[in-house]
Amino acid sequence: MYKLLICWRYLRTRWIALASIVSVTLGVATMIVVNSVMAGFSHEMQLRLHAILSDLVVESHGLDGFPDPDWYMARLREIAGDEIAGMTPTVAVPAMLSFTYGGNWITRPVQLVGVDEKTQAEAGDFGKFLQHPANREAMNFLLRDAGYDARGVENQTPGQLRPALTEAGWKHRRRVAEHKRWADEQRKRQMAEQAVANPAPVADAQADPFAVRQEDPVKQAEQGHTFDMAKEQHTGLVLGIALATFRDELGEERFLVMPGEDVKLTFPTSGTPPRAVDSTFTVVDLYECKMSEYDASFVFVPIKRLQELRGMVDPGTGVRYATSIQIKLKPGVDGDAVRDKIRKHFPPELFAVSTWRDKQGALLAAVKMETAILNVLLFMIIAVAGFGILAIFYMIVVEKTRDIGILKSLGASASGIMGIFLGYGLSLGAVGAGMGMVLGLLFVWNINEIAHVLSLISGREVFDPSIYYFYQIPTIVDPNTITWIIVGAIGIAVLASVLPARRAAGLHPVEALRYE
């Protein structure tokens, strides 16, 4: 009992030990914050990567693809049908996206992906990142009347609401069509006035690089149909939301293009040498997976239309081509084992068979390595606190030599004296680790609010989505991780008190009291 009383008295009165407690507190809090953020990064990144890449991907090495994906999917069912939950063919090709904003043409490089809306949901989570609730339930490439979610897929903070999306759809398309009709009438009137005032030939409007590109009326007349934008749409297209938005000088999100507007896509055809083709598409929905690298690069169109435009349909047999097959496995199935099984039946010179982790292995390994290095570096903070405890305890042993001698002369054993200092070290570590756990958890739970305040103070974005992939700082609190951090901190404090405790236990009472 006397050992506990002495430890408690030292803990209350020895203010020099406060420095060690603060060091342990900061070390534990920092490690909890770093591990929670890195776990959140890793988890969210894997979710986003897995949403685009199915469990397994069988893909060709070139952009020309392979013929008859249905035959290959049937072959895959023969090889691993018991492990496969769903499959879908896709066509992926680099492309250039062009659209008008404020009378100017904007062109951006994108990754164009042709998907089958009927089977895409069977092989991935593409649909759940769309902005219209009906498309999340059953995806199609038809423009909706209204109902686009202003809050996005996930509940967002009020500052991230997108009220403009409530006007998206056919209502917005009819408004754009009316504006274009009025602009065309104004341009024709100006051209007529110029022709009367100046009989010189007037340049063709199509030569104006800033003119709104319309469908060819001669071609439409030959087909016996005039396209009416207010009532009709082109082939549907799903656009990554970062391609459709930008932030102004006040940090507010604005739309460059919305569902209901038309865009142009230019991409290479199949074959050698490839040639560039372009076509007009109508934006029918926006894709937002909260990973800026994907939101700023991916564009999705119907696979059949992309195959036709790229020449990936055999004119004689009607056989279609695809560049990859996305495979979703049943829960609990080992993806690596299925991958190895498929590789035995698909020649490596024609196909690359990989899991989604294989395709993003370098990125995931980098995150894991960074977490391990940060843990080692941050644990040194607690180690520094341990050296502080060691030095403080040696000072206490020297200062309390007489007291130790009195205790021993009264019958205290060497193990009892040693237990006092070990208990003192244990109490320092426990108090510091406990305070660090509370501080770290409070920081983690309010980390986005703290980042926002720091951004206001510094005048710059603390957490830039274009660098860190996500729009908010993701965190996951793992009880097992917190447990080993606290146990490690307490263990260092106890180990730091072993040598001073042994020295105190080895003092002889006569030697300790000789000069008193």
Write the layout of secondary structure elements.
Layout: H1 2-13, H2 18-52, E1 56-60, E2 66-67, H3 69-80, E3 84-101, E4 104-115, H4 120-123, H5 133-137, H6 170-197, H7 217-222, E5 235-240, H8 241-244, E6 245-247, E7 253-255, E8 262-268, E9 276-287, H9 292-295, E10 298-302, H10 303-310, E11 321-322, E12 324-329, H11 335-343, E13 351-355, H12 356-359, H13 361-399, H14 401-409, H15 414-445, H16 447-458, H17 465-468, H18 479-496, H19 498-505, H20 509-513
Parallel strand pairs: 4-10, 5-9
Antiparallel strand pairs: 1-12, 1-13, 2-11, 3-4, 3-8, 3-12, 5-10, 6-7, 8-9
Helix pairs in contact: 1-15, 2-13, 2-15, 2-18, 13-18, 13-19, 15-18, 15-19
Q: Into which percentage range does the β-strand content fall? A: 15-25%
Residues in helices, as a percent range = 40-55%
Radius of gyration: 34 Å
Low-pLDDT parts are: 155-159, 202-222
Count of helical regions: 20
User: What is the rounded distance between the termini?
Assistant: 27 Å
Spatial sequence of strands, sheet with the most strands: 3-4-10-5-9-8
The total beta strand count reads 13
Describe the sheet with the most strands: 6 strands, mixed, barrel
Query: What is the average per-residue confidence, as pLDDT, rounded to a whole number?
Result: 80
Spatial shape: elongated
Which secondary-structure class do the elements indicate? alpha+beta
